[in-house]
Amino acid sequence: MKGNKSYGNGSSWADQSDYSDPAAATSTANEKKSSSGGATAKYKQKVGDGLEKTKSVASTGMKKVKQGTSSGLQWIKDKYHKSTHKH
Q1: Hey, which residues does 84 pair with through a beta bridge?
Q2: Where are the domains positioned within the chain?
Q3: Cα separation of 18 and 22, whole Å?
Q4: What is this structure's pTM?
Q5: Contacts by residues 57-62 (CB-CB < 8 Å, ≥ 24 positions apart)
Q6: Core vs surface per residue 4-28: b (16+ CB within 10 A) or e
Q7: CA–CA separation, 16 and 65 (whole Å)
């Protein structure tokens, strides 16, 4: 026996258990894709629109987080400055 090669032809054990015709499986998948072309385009458009909305919401959220963090750090600086510089 040579290493991992089973049956001496270089294919793995998973390849040996697959008895279906790969050309038939590919042609069936291609037929399904071509028959639903209009539906796929509509679905892709809806997903794209949803992603744009998600991107917009995430951007707005990050701006708010940045602004809140900045004002929070400024508040901490002011408090520290007041407590260390008492006259």
Answers
A1: none
A2: 12-82
A3: 9
A4: 0.42
A5: none
A6: eeeeeeeeeeeeeeeeeeeeeeeee
A7: 55
